[in-house]
Amino acid sequence: MTASDRSRYFVDACIEAIGTAHVLTGAHDTAPFLTDWRKRYRGETCAVVLPGTTEQVAKIVQLAREFRVPIVPQGGNTGHSGGATPDASGTQVVISLRRLNRIRDVDPLNNTITVEAGVILADIQARAEQEERLFALSLAAEGSCTIGGNLSTNAGGTAVLRYGNTRELCLGLEVVTPQGEIWNGLRGLRKDNTGYDLRDLYIGAEGTLGIITAAVMKLHPAPVARVTALAAVASPQAALDFLVTAQRYAGPLLTGFELMSDFSLHLVTTHFPQMRHPFEKKHGQTVLLELSDSESEEHGRGLFERLMEHAMEQGLVEDAVVAESLSQSQAFWNLREHIPLAQSVEGLNIKHDIAVPISRIGHFIEETDVLIAERIPGVRMVTFGHLGDGNLHYNVQAPEGVDPKSFLAEFQTPVNALVYERVHAHGGSISAEHGLGQLKVEEAMHYKSPVEVRLMRALKTALDPENLMNPAKVLPDVHALRTSRVVTEPY
């Protein structure tokens, strides 16, 4: 039986299992599921299947195993690395978790919320707020990304400095294994020392070891006050010195510490003129910092004033503006969150989602900026990210007047190699919060030790011996050529 025949019989079996309405095969219906958010990858599929329960997910996986149909799990399809996009063969099935969108339980006393994989991140935040709690995961795509995708990529966001990334916010999981079995690990326990930590195995695995269908997530008491400010500093190293001071003054109250280069803000205010540049004078870098206080607005502002007074006296901060209202606080965050959108309008660019030890960030930026400028005169650097946890979005924009497509075609490969070598030299990682997907698989294998790669392959082989779960993602598929169609027009 050919792969095409197996796919056809599989689709018929899926229709019988969950109904025609939830098995999409027409080109118009499947199209939204076949291109990644950045429009870098496009694939084909035998069907997009939308199960409505964990049991239906398990049934579809059982059928996929029976007919040997590879599976691509998908959440909100907001990923940056092509991890939820099928290849071009048309033989893979996309299992969308969008219909698994129920909040199963909220336990305010235990500070937990149990949610299905297809729940939108913003909906979890809103439900927590109703209980006077905080769900701390926050990122630009929170209005459309799903918690299943957040878990599968171990998403970071803007509050990692205080609350940790998605892994730290998860207590338990429900997972459908590659054999179509259901593992119920939905335990809301902070301490459970009874063997291997299967939860952490699936988080960040990008659907290559199983499909996350539900999770128990941590909640925190809602802060009573937020203090948000923009601080101008001369350089990335000055921003790091300011971070040390902010941590000394604010301690655990320091929730966010974001770095934005001057050119990043220039792009935002150019392409979104309704957003004003916060400072009249040009500065090398701008820091967006936020304190969350559980005591009172007065306490939070008093602490913040002492911090800023000391930082300006020491010459760490050149200028600053403090939000006087929630709307102004949101306006500050909008500046930060519109940087990727402004880059998109400006034209194609070379993106990097990297992590470097916090102590090395200043050196990394200064050294790598020089090397790239030597290679590409006039290049424009768009550097921003979560300075407090070492995660940078280190992006390279074409020189002004240079055709972006030609720039990308000529320089993407050598610039990636240069940046990744510098990241490795500083003890960093080439993927911080966006995952490997299919974008960085080969590069990741280059920088991992043979021992680490063998361990990863051993886990994949043990849990998914038939290699049906999101093949060629995270690890190279050694049995088949990569057939994904790469589109040369990413954001």
Automatic annotation (TrEMBL):
GO terms for biological process: respiratory electron transport chain. It holds the Pfam family FAD_binding_4. Residues 41-222 form the FAD-binding PCMH-type domain. It comes from the Bacteria. Transmembrane segments: none annotated. Keywords: FAD, Flavoprotein. Its cofactor is FAD. SUPFAM superfamilies: FAD-binding/transporter-associated domain-like (SSF56176), FAD-linked oxidases, C-terminal domain (SSF55103). GO terms for molecular function: catalytic activity; FAD binding. InterPro entries: FAD-bd_oxidored_4_C (IPR004113), FAD-bd_PCMH (IPR016166), FAD-bd_PCMH-like_sf (IPR036318), FAD-bd_PCMH_sub1 (IPR016167), FAD-bd_PCMH_sub2 (IPR016169), FAD-linked_Oxase-like_C (IPR016164), FAD-oxidored/transferase_4 (IPR051264), Oxid_FAD_bind_N (IPR006094). Belongs to the FAD-binding oxidoreductase/transferase type 4 family. This is 2-hydroxyacid dehydrogenase. It comes from Caballeronia mineralivorans PML1(12). The lineage of its organism: Bacteria, Pseudomonadati, Pseudomonadota, Betaproteobacteria, Burkholderiales.
